[in-house]
């Protein structure tokens, strides 16, 4: 068990009204920032989805973000998904919302009914022995970084009679502390993953370089966009759905949007600083 889970009840549904207002205001500020960055780059803001990164946040906090308009949430750890999912499913249902697999995945892609569903992603690393913890709930695993993991997820998905979306994580920054496949291996790997039964390759994901150099951060995002375009242009089996670019977080989402991001993963700007790591 992750240590902080011993000190915080992640399934807690109660929320102080003032905390709810803080989260609502955070969501609205981020949505405004997304719209502004989209306008600056000549893009339609509807083509960019806000994913609330909910690591260490309890059910009450997450529901405040959903009530404020968030329709895509992402957890870092399978243990947290397991701790929160049932309460989130219940509370979403009370609001007429589907969540994750329970929502048939509709909230995972732009559609006329997207406002009625909340997509549920795993955005952190996944160990093979935790696959069964996440598959009943998540619509997309963003952190697939190799063929072995993809094959294991595919087998579990097929045995469960379903298909799961995946994003290939690419380490565009080259930083050793970050996970993801090497950029030079990404296209071949993506095509191999796209051909696996039980998986739908929905796009690519990266974490921006942890530097103050705007040019370097943008270069990583632009390269990921070029990889996505090359995968689509390849015409290989299963690659037609590879359209998402999950890139950009609280500190660099403006650059990411201008470089083509379709999903920005934001935690701090919505919920504030985390009390736990």
From TrEMBL:
Keyword Isomerase on entry: no
Cofactor(s) it depends on: pyridoxal 5'-phosphate
Modification type N6-(pyridoxal phosphate)lysine: residues: 55
Domain Alanine racemase N-terminal residues, every copy: 62-274
InterPro entries on file: Ala_racemase_N (IPR001608), PLP-binding_barrel (IPR029066), PyrdxlP_homeostasis (IPR011078)
Molecular functions per Gene Ontology: pyridoxal phosphate binding
Keywords: Pyridoxal phosphate
Function: Pyridoxal 5'-phosphate (PLP)-binding protein, which is involved in PLP homeostasis.
Similarity annotation: Belongs to the pyridoxal phosphate-binding protein YggS/PROSC family.
UniProt-listed NCBIfam families: YggS family pyridoxal phosphate-dependent enzyme
PANTHER family (alphabetical): PROLINE SYNTHETASE CO-TRANSCRIBED BACTERIAL HOMOLOG PROTEIN, PYRIDOXAL PHOSPHATE HOMEOSTASIS PROTEIN
Name of the protein in its database record: Pyridoxal phosphate homeostasis protein
Higher taxonomy: Bacteria, Bacillati, Actinomycetota, Actinomycetes, Bifidobacteriales
